[in-house]
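Posting for a labmate who doesn't have an account.
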Amino acid sequence: MNEFRIVVIGAGETGTPLLTQLLGASFVKVLGVADLDPEQPGIALARQHGVTTTQDFMTLVSKGNEVDIIIDVTGVPKVREELRKYMVDTANEHTLIMHEQIALLMMSLSAGKLVQGKHGNQEYH
């Protein structure tokens, strides 16, 4: 593997700084960014870098094994449920779904201090 192929779902307060880090990494290819609100700052950032944007996250998720990691920073349990169901229904054993808490951990490590998320503690059911 020469790079991590990433899809980001959520382009707001958590997704935008994360996207900034991802776009700056030579070993990361951001395949797309999804958010229901096309005015989110992460959508504008993605467009500036020529990254595909959409309001329908499933169009990005449907790339199947082309995607190594789906980063879900929406804080919406229904999104997590749809992602997991899709992975099972399509027998996708390659793509990993990264929860918002893991994204916050990685961002905190990078920043050298605790980074708070907008959505508080999200349980993963």
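Reply:
Got it, the structure tokens are right above this. The mean pLDDT is 91.
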